[in-house]
Amino acid sequence: MISRLSAFKPFKYNKTQQRTQFESEEFGPVFIQEPDDAIFSLDTDDKKVIMNCEARGNPVPTYSWLINGTNVDAEADFRYSLIDGNLIINNASEAIDYGRYQCRAENSIGIILSRDALLQFACE
Q1: Which pLDDT score is estimated for 22?
Q2: For residue 35, is the peptide bond before it cis, meaning its omega torsion is within 30 degrees of 0?
Q3: Which UniProt keywords apply (predicted)?
Q4: By the 8 A CB rule, do 79 and 50 touch?
Q5: How far from the centroid of its chain's Cα atoms is residue 13's Cα?
Q6: Nearest CA among 119, 124, 121 for reference residue 35
Q7: Residue boundaries of the structural domains of the chain
Q8: 100 and 117 in contact (C-beta within 8 Å)?
Q9: What CATH superfamily classification does 29-122 receive?
Q10: Contact 121, 47 (CB under 8 A)
Q11: Residue-wise pLDDT tens digits, 12-36
């Protein structure tokens, strides 16, 4: 009987198995990274601003952005593009782009809105 017990090995989940088990369960978006306040230098040659945002969820969340409470239309304005959850602003302009940004992540379970991130402009 002792030899049978010594051959018994309890089953343990490894991290991959645990992740797979949890990923099969649906859940609303949860932020991994929210946008931070930024000061963009007007003296730089690279006129690109990147506002970061990342969320987890199942189903995988989709993203959109707001500036001062208004939707950023990346399809209508070529200066804006979305890569994953990140907002890229090309040819950033103080007159147009200064303001408070929020990232919105949503899936069929829910919607979350990030904290405000203030984008400011300054000369060096």
Answers
A1: 54
A2: no
A3: Disulfide bond, Repeat
A4: no
A5: 29
A6: 119
A7: 29-122
A8: yes
A9: Immunoglobulins (2.60.40.10)
A10: no
A11: 444 444 455 555 799 999 999 999 9
Residues 39 and 105: beta-carbon distance below 8 Å: no
Q: Calculate the CA 78 to chain-centre distance.
A: 21
Q: How far apart are CA 81 and CA 89, in angstroms?
A: 7
| Token representation of residue 93 | 């302009």
Spatial contact of 42 and 122, defined as CB atoms under 8 Å apart:
yes
Give the span between the Cα atoms of 83 and 106, in whole angstroms: 16
Output phi, psi for 3, to 5 deg: -65, -35
pLDDT of residue 12: 44
Which residue positions in the chain have pLDDT lower than 70? 1-23
Q: What is the CA radius of gyration of the chain?
A: 22
What's the pTM?
Answer: 0.78
What is the rounded CA–CA span in Å between residue 19 and residue 81?
Answer: 31
Select from 40, 38, 37, 46 the least CA-distant residue to 124: 40
Would you state the structure tokens that stand for residue 7, as one six-digit string?
A: 């051959």
124's tokens: 């060096």
